[in-house]
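Following the same procedure, sequence and fold were stored together, as reproduced here.

>
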Amino acid sequence: MEIMLSGNFKEAYINGIKTEILNRQFQYRKLFDKGSLYLEKLGGTVLESYLLKGVGVAGETLGKGYRKHTIY
């Protein structure tokens, strides 16, 4: 759109804009991949903590149930 608005239709200018777009596309892809990996790692950590918390609660509940039903 910039080319149309500027009215500069010279081949060198158009190739420069094309190169700039391709560079930005590459930079965007790298940032997107980096962000995706970060979120995946963050999500895994959150899931891991929920899982460990769930195991802890389950163990505590089983321990309480075991104490209630033990015959001395």
User: Anything to note?
Assistant: The helical segments are 2-6, 11-68.
